[in-house]
Write a structure and sequence with these properties.
Length: 719
C-alpha cells in the first residue's frame, strides 16, 4: 500500500506542478480533478495510468487524433434527477445529449483504433454505455435545441394552428394598413412592434378615428400605437395558443425527465469518464510542454536519473529564456544513501527536490522530463524533511520540529522507503546535533532505506565514506570564481568553502585568519584537503571536457571527410559510367559512318543491311534484360548524372568563354593619325605594308603592289 503524506507533497511543491497541469484542462471538473491528484494507492494502477498518458501524448502528432472531449458539467442536473417529480429544462437536456454523444464518439474511436490506444481502449471498455438516452432526447429536440413539432401529437396540432393564426394576423393587419395608408392618420413610420404585436403608428390627433386597442405611445406622446380591430380577435387566439404550447412543452419535458431518471448512474459515469479523459489530456499536454517521457520502470530497488530536470524550474527558466541544468544521479543496492555536501547556493536542495518531486509525479501518473533510459522503482513511502519548519501553532522550534520528524521517520522507515532530508542535523549545537544526525543515519542505513541528505557536517561526510552502501557527493564549483556549475560529482565530499566565500565577499583576511585560529587545526586541515581535492577535480574536469570536445571535433571531421570521399568516389564512378557510355556511342557512330561510306562507294544495299544486322545483334547480345521498374531506375539515374555533368560543363564553358573574351580584348588603341592618299599603312593585326590610293566614306583602297583591297580606316595604322 503506497502512503505519501500531504506534507511530503507540499515540501516537494507537488501542488504547484498540479496547478501547471490544470491550466491545460478544458473542463471545470477536469481542472478540479487535476488539482486533487495524489499518488496512486497501489502500484498496479500506476503503470496503466502512465501508459494512457503516453498514448494520448502520441496522438497529438498522429493521423488519427483523439476526438474532442469537451462537455458542460451536469452536476446540477444529476442532483435534480435525484429529486422526485422534478423536471429538467430544455438547456439541461441539451447538456445531457452533448455529454452522451461525446462519450459515444470517444468509445467508438478507441474501439476503432484499439491497436494504437491499447490502455485507453481498455479504460473505455469499463463504461456501460446506452444509446437510449441520446435517441430519446433526439426524438424530442432538433439540432438547434428546440422542441420538435412532432414531439407529441397535441404539440403538432397547436403549432399548425399557430401558423394559421399568425398568417391571419398578418393578412388582417396588412388590410388595415392599406386602408389607412392613403389617409393622413398614420405617422411616417406607419407601423411598429409592441409586446411582440404589430401595431399602427397613429398620429395622436387621429387616434379616435381608428378602431382598435391602444398598446402604448411614443415618448413625446405624438404617436399612439394601436392594434387594429381586425387583428384583435386573432391576437387573443394567438395568446391562448402560445400558452397551450408552453404547457404542452412542460408535459413533454416532464415525460422526458421521467424517462431519463433511471439512467442517472449512466450519466454520472459519462461525466466521470470524460473528466478523466480531460485529466489525461492535460497530463499529456503538460508532458509535451516540458519534453517529458515515460522512463523505464523496474521491480529492482533502484533509481537512475539521467539528464533529469526539476519541472518547476524548467518551466520558470523557459519563460525567462534561461538555461536549466539537468542532473544525473543513481541510487541502488550498493549505493542506497547519498550524502551531498558543498557550499550554499550550489544546487544541493534543488537536486534533492528533483529526485523527490519526480518520484511523486511518476507515482501520480505524470510523465517526467528525463532521458528515456532513466529507471524508477515505485516506493511505498516517500519521507521528506525540507526547509525551515518552525511550528508556531505547536510552539515548536526548528530543531524540535525536526526531531519530531525524525521520530516519524524512525517509525515508518523500511527498505521500500525513500527519504529526503535537507540540511540534516542543523538547528542545534553542531557537535551534539551532528552526533544525533549520525546515529539517525546509521539507523536508516541498517533498515536498507534509500535516501539523499544534504549537510555541512564533517562527521556525516566521514560516515558516508565508511559505510559500504553509502556514498559522498558534492555540487561542483569553479575553482577560481567559486561560482556553481550545477553538476553533481559522485564519490567525493564537498567543502563548504566557508573562508573562501567569505574572502570573496570582502571579509578582511585578518578576521578570516583570526577565525581559523579559533577552530581545531584538524577540522581546518580536513576542510582544506576537501577544498583542494575539489579544485583539482575541477581542473581535471575542465581538461577532460576540453579533450572530449577536441576528440569529438576530430571524430566529426573524420566522419565528414569519409562522407565527402564516399561522395567523390560515387561521383567518379557515375561519371566513368557516363564516359564509357558516350565512348561506346562514339565507336558505334564511327562503325556506322564506315558502313555509310562503303554503301556510298559500292551502292550494295544487301551488304549494308547484313552489316547493320550483325552490328545490332552484336550490341544486343551485350544487353541485359531488365524489369520495367529497374529500367526506370537506371534511366532516372542516367538522366540525373547527365544533368549534373551538363550543369558543371555549362559552368566550365561559361568560364572559358569569359577567359577567351578577356584574352581577345583589344589593347588600348593608339592615338589615330589622320590618314590621307599616298600614306604608307598596314592593317592593325597584319604585317603587309601598302599605299592608300583612294579614300571614300571612312574606307580606303590600299595598294599592295600585286593586289588592292578595300579596308576600314579604323583598321589601318600609319607606318
Amino acid at each position: 500500500m503506497v502512503k505519501i503524506h500531504h506534507k511530503t507533497l507540499e515540501d516537494l511543491e507537488f501542488p504547484k506542478v498540479l496547478a501547471q497541469v490544470s491550466e491545460f484542462c478544458i473542463t471545470e471538473p477536469g481542472n478540479k480533478m487535476v488539482l486533487g491528484l495524489i499518488p496512486f494507492p497501489d502500484t498496479a494502477s500506476i503503470l496503466p495510468s502512465l501508459q494512457r498518458v503516453k498514448e494520448f501524448t502520441a496522438s497529438f502528432g498522429s493521423d488519427a487524433p483523439i476526438p474532442n472531449h469537451g462537455f458542460e458539467p451536469i452536476q446540477k442536473e444529476l442532483q435534480l434527477l435525484e429529486i422526485e417529480n422534478s423536471t429538467l429544462e430544455s438547456f439541461s437536456f441539451r447538456k445531457l445529449l452533448s455529454l452522451s454523444e461525446t462519450t459515444q464518439t470517444l468509445l467508438k474511436f478507441f474501439k476503432k483504433f484499439e491497436e494504437f490506444y491499447v490502455q485507453l481502449h481498455l479504460f473505455s471498455e469499463e463504461i456501460d454505455f446506452t444509446p437510449a438516452i441520446s435517441e430519446e432526447i433526439k426524438k424530442i429536440f432538433d439540432k438547434y435545441g428546440e422542441v420538435k413539432d412532432d414531439a407529441s401529437q397535441e404539440l403538432g396540432t397547436i403549432r399548425r394552428r399557430l401558423q394559421v393564426v399568425k398568417s391571419q394576423i398578418n393578412s388582417s393587419f396588412t388590410k388595415a394598413l392599406n386602408r389607412y395608408a392613403g389617409s393622413d392618420y398614420l405617422d411616417e413610420i406607419r407601423e411598429t412592434v409592441v409586446e411582440n404585436r404589430r401595431v399602427l403608428a397613429v398620429k395622436a390627433m387621429h387616434r379616435k378615428k381608428i378602431k382598435g386597442a391602444v398598446l402604448g405611445q411614443s415618448k413625446t406622446g405624438s404617436i399612439v400605437y394601436i392594434e387594429p380591430q381586425e387583428t384583435l380577435e386573432y391576437a387573443n387566439e394567438l395568446s391562448n395558443l402560445i400558452y397551450e404550447e408552453r404547457e404542452e412543452i412542460k408535459k413533454i419535458l416532464k415525460a422526458l425527465t421521467e424517462f431519463v431518471r433511471p439512467y442517472q448512474h449512466h450519466l454520472a459515469s459519462y461525466q466521470h469518464y470524460t473528466t478523466q479523459i480531460d485529466t489525461i489530456y492535460a497530463k499529456a499536454r503538460y508532458a509535451v510542454s516540458i519534453d517529458a517521457v515515460l522512463p523505464r520502470l523496474t521491480e529492482d530497488r533502484q533509481i537512475t536519473l539521467i539528464d533529469a530536470y526539476h519541472p518547476l524550474l524548467l518551466v520558470s527558466n523557459k519563460k525567462r529564456k534561461e538555461k536549466t541544468y539537468p542532473q544525473s544521479i543513481e541510487l541502488h543496492h550498493d549505493k542506497r544513501i547519498i550524502v551531498i555536501s558543498g557550499p550554499n547556493a550550489g544546487g544541493k536542495s534543488i537536486t534533492l527536490k528533483t529526485v523527490g518531486l519526480l518520484q511523486v509525479m511518476l507515482q501520480s501518473g505524470l510523465l517526467l522530463p528525463v532521458d528515456p533510459s532513466s529507471e524508477f522503482f515505485f516506493f511505498d513511502r516517500v519521507l521528506t524533511d525540507i526547509g525551515d519548519n518552525q511550528s508556531i501553532e505547536n510552539h515548536l522550534s526548528t530543531y524540535s520540529y525536526r526531531l519530531k520528524k525524525m521520530n516519524q521517520f524512525l517509525k515508518k522507515c523500511n527498505k521500500n522507503t525513500l527519504f529526503l532530508i535537507d540540511e540534516f542535523g542543523t538547528g542545534s549545537d553542531p557537535e551534539l546535533g551532528g552526533a544525533l544526525a549520525e546515529t539517525f543515519l546509521e539507523v536508516f542505513y541498517e533498515r536498507e532505506a534509500f535516501g539523499i541528505i544534504t549537510t555541512h557536517y564533517a562527521n556525516l561526510k566521514l560516515l558516508a565514506n565508511e559505510l559500504p552502501h553509502a556514498v559522498n557527493a558534492n555540487m561542483q564549483f569553479d575553482s577560481k570564481t567559486l561560482a556553481p556549475v550545477y553538476k553533481l560529482q559522485m564519490g567525493e565530499a564537498g567543502s563548504s568553502f566557508t573562508f573562501e566565500v567569505a574572502q570573496k565577499n570582502g571579509i578582511p583576511y585578518s578576521l578570516i585568519n583570526k577565525s581559523k585560529k579559533k577552530i581545531e587545526r584538524g577540522k581546518i586541515r580536513f576542510d582544506k584537503t576537501i577544498a583542494n581535492l575539489q579544485k583539482e577535480r575541477s581542473k581535471l574536469r575542465k581538461t577532460s571536457e576540453t579533450l572530449e570536445t577536441s576528440a569529438e571535433k576530430a571524430r566529426q571531421e573524420s566522419k565528414q571527410l569519409e562522407m565527402v570521399n564516399a561522395k567523390v568516389q560515387e561521383k567518379l564512378e557515375s561519371y566513368q559510367e557516363l564516359y564509357d557510355a558516350n565512348q561506346k556511342l562514339i565507336t558505334l557512330g564511327r562503325r556506322f559512318d564506315s558502313l555509310a561510306e562503303k554503301y556510298f562507294n559500292n551502292k550494295q544495299k544487301r551488304a549494308l543491311l547484313d552489316e547493320l544486322f550483325k552490328l545490332v545483334m552484336t550490341e544486343n547480345s551485350k544487353r541485359k534484360k531488365l524489369s520495367p521498374k529497374k529500367k526506370k531506375e537506371v534511366k532516372k539515374k542516367k538522366h540525373e548524372i547527365k544533368q549534373e555533368v551538363e550543369q558543371k560543363v555549362a559552368v566550365i564553358r561559361k568560364e572559358k568563354k569569359k577567359e577567351k573574351a578577356e584574352s581577345k580584348k583589344e589593347p588600348p588603341k593608339k592615338p589615330q593619325v589622320p590618314l590621307k592618299i599616298g600614306d604608307r599603312v598596314r592593317m592593325i593585326d597584319g604585317r603587309a605594308i601598302g599605299t592608300i590610293d583612294i579614300i571614300e566614306k571612312k574606307k580606303a583602297i590600299v595598294n599592295y603592289g600585286m593586289f588592292t583591297t578595300n579596308v576600314s580606316l579604323e583598321e589601318l595604322e600609319k607606318v
